[in-house]
Amino acid sequence: MKTTLNFPDDLISEAKIQAAIEHTTLTRLIVDGLKIRLRKENGSIQKVLPVSKSTGGLHADYSWDTIHKEGEQNEVYR
User: Fold this and answer.
1) In 3D, which of 45, 50, 47, 48 has the Cα closest to residue 61?
2) Which of 30, 35, 51, 76 could be a cystine partner for 47, CB 3.0 to 4.6 Å?
3) Of 50, 47, 12, 46, which Cα lies nearest the Cα of 29?
4) Cα 74 to Cα 71: distance, rounded to the nearest angstrom
């Protein structure tokens, strides 16, 4: 699909340079960026569990009370 978008000139200039460095097109660079952003917004990006591999318990930055208070919408440990 073709569409018209208005980007800041300096952003497009930087993106064109990056596309050239990566031997790709500006369109491909924008599409890839949108895909990454949409996956992140939809929660598709893998989240890190708050469990220590070495001890099998929670990382020092986490407690069960803190995790519980964050609510079910933020459950990444199931």
Assistant:
1) 50
2) 76
3) 12
4) 6
